[in-house]
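User: I'm curious what two different proteins look like when written out as structure tokens. Can you demonstrate?

Assistant: Sure. I'll show them one after the other, since each token string lines up with its own sequence. Here's the first protein:
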Amino acid sequence: METSGQWRYTPPTHVVAAFIEALKVHEVEGGVAARGQRYANNRDVLVAGMRDIGFETLLDASWLSPIIVTFFSPADPKFDFGQFYELMKNQGYIIYPGKLTAVNSFRIGCIGRMDTAVMEDVVTAAGFALATMGVVDAAPPPDALTERQRLSG
């Protein structure tokens, strides 16, 4: 392409068109700063709501990312991640198992075509899932809080 200005193979026109459209949307939204602020707002609403229903984050507030947030799994014996995952999925939300930590956890993303209203709905869905499973306390086990302290130190 650099020498002839032509694609070597059939050009991926749909990919190029989608990329151009994505750049336009990004510019209309206000660029990197505005998008980053939207993601941070999403994170803040998600974290506040999840904490309100008893969940704890893996990291202290100063370390939280606006991209994805890790929450500890509740210590309540009625909590089953597989069932929680399915209940969230049935409500239209896909969460991620937390395989990167020494304690049981899961992750929720804050990016994409979402806003704070969607994040409030995610929290509502999580509360519904807990109630459906009969989980009365979403607090993590003590070793989870020890892990958070270790990571923050």
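Here's a second, unrelated protein for contrast:
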Amino acid sequence: MRKMETDPCDRPSRNRWRPASRDRTNGTFGEGNAMLVRKIIGKQSSYKKKLLFFLLLISIFPVSLLGLAASHLFSQQIQQEVNRNYRLTLSMLHNRLNDKISAMALSSISLASNDALEKSVAAGLLNDLELDSRMKIYVIDDKGRMFYSRNRDEIGTMLTTADELYYYWLEPANHGDKVMPDHVRYTVSAQKSDYANWTYIVMTPYEDLTKKSNQMKGAIMSIAGVFMLLCMALALFGFREWFRPLRSLLAKTQTTEDAPLPSDNEIEALDEVLQRLIRANKQLHDEIREHMPLAKERIYHFLINGELDESEASRLSDRFEPKLRSPWIYVGVAQVDDYIRFNQTYRGRERSMIHNAMRKAMEELCGHTVPCITFVPEPGQIVVLFAAEQADDRAFGQICHIMKQFRAHAANGFRFTVSAAIGDARREYACISAGYREALHMLSYRLLYGHNVTITTRDIRQRALLQPEESMLRYHKSIVMLLLQGNSEGAAIELEQWLEDVRHYSPSPDNAIGLLSYLLGELEYKLLEAGCHLHEIVSYDLYGRLRMMTVLTEIRAWLLDELFPAVACHLEMVQDPKSKRVVRQVEAYLLERYEEDITLQLTADRFGITPSFLSRIFKDATGRSFSDYLLEIRMNKAMEWLAYTDWPLQHISDRLTYSTVQNFSRIFKKMTGAPPGEYRRQRRENSRTS
């Protein structure tokens, strides 16, 4: 008997009969899975869905791959064992048939002449073999006649070309699968006998050959399925637990002012939160950068006002201004000399631009020579903090030179002059406020030094050693006496000399202001002795005006050009009968302008005298006050118009500058004893009677 060929279950069919077709999918496995992935998660799917899909995929894929590999290996081993048993069965069947045929000695009995006997013998030929009841066995002799079949009706029949077994008989090497009319798939094996050149054909149900391997595959895949379900459950549980703190975080970050976050996608919501944080951080960064100069200005104000202790000042200065880390700090103040003119010239944004230009000019002058910071505590004033490694003459000289250059730059580049003051060096930040107050106090010495100067503590110390001359204490008496005597030129010469002595010998501006106040007091006293009051000459506070002035040149101009001429004019009018002429001029003025809104102040300004002086001389000359005289003129005109015209009361009231008819009627009744309408009626009745 020939050796069995390769397992017919694993070989493709080579016969002409159509084998059973196997299911095949269109496209490759990779293309199908790619389409499936795109269909499941989609391009617009959320990150949460994608993450869940890939978690499930990661949990399923290894288990399924392991299950498939294990089922394939185990089923392959089992199938090999089944195929080996199948080959042994075929071999045993072959040997048994050969033995049976040789033992029967068919040549000695005429089977061909006795079909019934042949069928009976062939039918019981393999009864002693334990074979599967569904297995089909055919024995065909060399003539093509069916010698054996489990179907007795087929025994003894001849094969024809129309029979399906005919080609297996011709070519026993053809093995393959065949689907019989009963719709059962069979594995066909054919083999020639070594004894009589007969052909043995065995058809075994394919299901019987693969039953064990399929059972093993099913068991393994069931176990793999259980593990996959377990992994999926763990993946889902972990997925939910992973998103739980994320949802809690989102709940904490959500505020009522913000737009609602996506509720179905935590990752998109987290992305939205991060985007909001980024936008808020950028906005905050821009606002901080925008308001940083203001914050620094605020810190500088705290420093100069003494509102920070040493630790706070050091911490803030180290953080915002590394330039101030030097051990010594000089405080300098530059201030506009003519602040009133500066305030009127520059307003709003233009003033802010001027301040920035002044700061930039100062910082450029400092350059890398002397580190400094500048800020504007109030309009027209710049504070400069100079940092120095040593508090010596060299550093002080550099700072004085910078201030001198800055004053020259302001005088040439701007339309105003500035004066500067430099205090002593300070070691601690908390002492900056003391240095600032010291510099402000030194700026008051502009009264003695003038404008566009740099004042230092050394200048102040040297000036404090000066002693006023005794002549300074006598000058004010002679000045007042000359003025009261009408010698204005002599008083002016004495004042010039006295102010020059004050400039050179006064130890402080307070001392100079005291001397000037003493001069005004002496003048007021002498005027009272002459029967005049100072408030009749000027209508403002002399001492307040004096304190507003910053330099002696300004005080000199005020005294010589305004106060002294006003006093001389007043004395001349009081002592001269021309005052009566002024009263007559005022009377004529009132008679001419009674229909206008006339006041005592306007009339006094019209004639160049003070209101109090006009009121006094007018009452002395007429015996009536200014207001009573004007009221009398207006009431006389009202009585005239009521008696001789038909003008309505509204017209008369408007011409006499009364605000309402009621007010006019009330005053008219008070002056005449009758209302305007009654007065008109009485005058007309009297006219008709006469």
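A detail about the second structure: Residues 474-573 form one domain.
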